[in-house]
Amino acid sequence: MDYLKKLSRFIIPYKKYGILNIICNIFYALFSTLAMVSLMPMINVLFGENEKVYTKPTYEGLKKLKVYAEDSLNYFITSTTDSQGPQQALLYMIILIISLFLLKNIFNYLALYFITFLRNGVLKDLRNEVYHKVLTLPISYYSEKRKGDIIARISGDVNEVKNSLLAVLELIVKEPLTIAFAILAMFSISVKLTIFVFLFIPISGFIISRIGKSLKRKSDRVQKEQGVFLSTLEETLSGLKVIKGFNAEGKFNKKFQESTNKFYNFSNILLNRQNLASPTSEFLGIVSIAALLWYGGSMVLIEKTLSGGAFITYMALAYQILTPAKAISKASYKVKAGNAAADRILEVIETHSPLEDKPNTTTKHDFTNSIKLENVSFKYEDDLVLRNFSINVPKGKTVALVGQSGSGKSTIANLVTRFYDVTEGKITIDGTNIKDITKHSLRSLIGLVTQDSILFNDTVKNNILLGDENATDEQVIEALKIANAWEFVKDLPEGINTNIGDSGNKLSGGQKQRLSIARAVLKNPPIMILDEATSALDTESERLVQVALENMMKNRTSIVIAHRLSTIQNADEIIVIQKGEIVEQGKHQELLDKGAVYSNLIAMQSFQ
């Protein structure tokens, strides 16, 4: 249960519900025992075995409380039997038993009622925390992790922790107290018989603990496999066109079925191990009851040291221990499964992000001078992608980065927006290192349009409003006009309120890209980064998008990463990159006149 310490900050806000649950469980355990003990006077009335007490007893302190309670009850039964008859005394005993069972069940319901708020509250806060961590962790984290595994942790694992919270409280409060009160009552009836019963408890406990020893490892294996097949499902939905286009349905189906077969086998082993707990504990309990019947029966029939009513009540109390004992064995398995799930959740929550803002970072509200990359080197894993890279982008100017695929162009966009941190060197905005600026304020200054138009399953309007959530419909429409997108949006069934489907798949590539540009236009940032924004488009769409980009870049500082060189001929400076290093820089005509790398790139793309 170590994970409870780690999860304590999620539990503390709901601690009042936990306290109320514990209080109700105490009363539940008390009334459970009293309900069983109340069977003894009823049986004694039925068989006329109750001790006759004609004088009202007097209270003589806690030491003689048991004697006082027994004498008071026997006095009540005796006086009622004498004045109203034994049937009336029996009726009173039945009413007492019903009342005690009613109180037991009321407190059981209240205990479950209060714990519901704690469990669901922790579930909500855990999911919110994991999702928040998903948003704040760097992009590099997800290049190493399966998306499906993250989904499994935020759904299945969190739910497992929720279930284990109830099991923990049953394990440490409800069932142990029920057993403790029952044992106290059993001792009060017969010390000798109770000591005999205790000879069997360590044996039962040892056998049950052996069954559940490896449960955490088996539970962890099940949860990991769930992450694998959820990842396969997520990849299938994302790449359905490719799968169908390459007739790869069989391959992916086989991959998914291999994972679900493993999940099936692991789950069977886990659940069968869990299911073994209840019958094992019940059988061991019945063996104990059988031994009790033999030994206790001799005390009633031969030694005459125990009354029949006391023995039947004792048997009921002994059997009552079985139910919480089974519950404890089941709960211990749930706690082990919850522990494995909590480890997987806490692994995400406690992952440190290398991109977290430092304590002394400043908030930057404007851009006044230039962006500089000074001797920047960077590597994703082992090999350097950029080497001693230096450029200066003055305010209001457009700098274009060109080069073959893999030369490091897009890496520069990732570094300026601080999706990654530089390995060596520094990037500054107006002379301030971007590591000393809060990520939120840095990204507020930057608009980003990527090659892949990332849109969400929502309306046109809500996709555009990511640029400025407080914008009016008129401002949204104006941004769409600047982006050359209004011409098709106005013809959609519900205009800007039309849902564009998953990833915007109801639209063409050019339409999606123009919505991405409109989103950046609405944000209205002073710095614009265009990462191959037209490379995936056909000629007509490229022309429309290029006009939109030119509209957007007016009076802005722009870094343009270009694959199609026709789109950057008007740039203030063109920087040619090869293998992470600058090989040429200058204006379009200057570089053409050199007849070197840039000129060759132009020739390969058949531009005159």
Automatic annotation (TrEMBL):
Q: Which SMART domains match?
A: AAA
Q: Locate the transmembrane regions by residue number.
A: 20-43, 89-118, 165-187, 193-211, 283-302
Q: Where in the cell does this protein reside?
A: Cell membrane
Q: How does it sit in the membrane?
A: Multi-pass membrane protein
* Record GO terms (molecular function): ABC-type oligopeptide transporter activity; ATP binding; ATP hydrolysis activity
What is one term from the GO cellular component aspect held by the record?
plasma membrane
Q: Which CDD domains match?
A: ABC_6TM_MsbA_like, ABCC_MsbA
Pfam families with a match to the protein in the record: ABC_membrane, ABC_tran
Record InterPro entries = AAA+_ATPase, ABC1_TM_dom, ABC1_TM_sf, ABC_transporter-like_ATP-bd, ABC_transporter-like_CS, P-loop_NTPase, Type_1_exporter
Q: Where is the ABC transporter domain?
A: 371-604
Asked whether the keyword Glycosyltransferase is assigned, the reply is no
Where is the ABC transmembrane type-1 domain positioned along the sequence? 19-337
Q: Can you name this protein?
A: ABC transporter ATP-binding protein
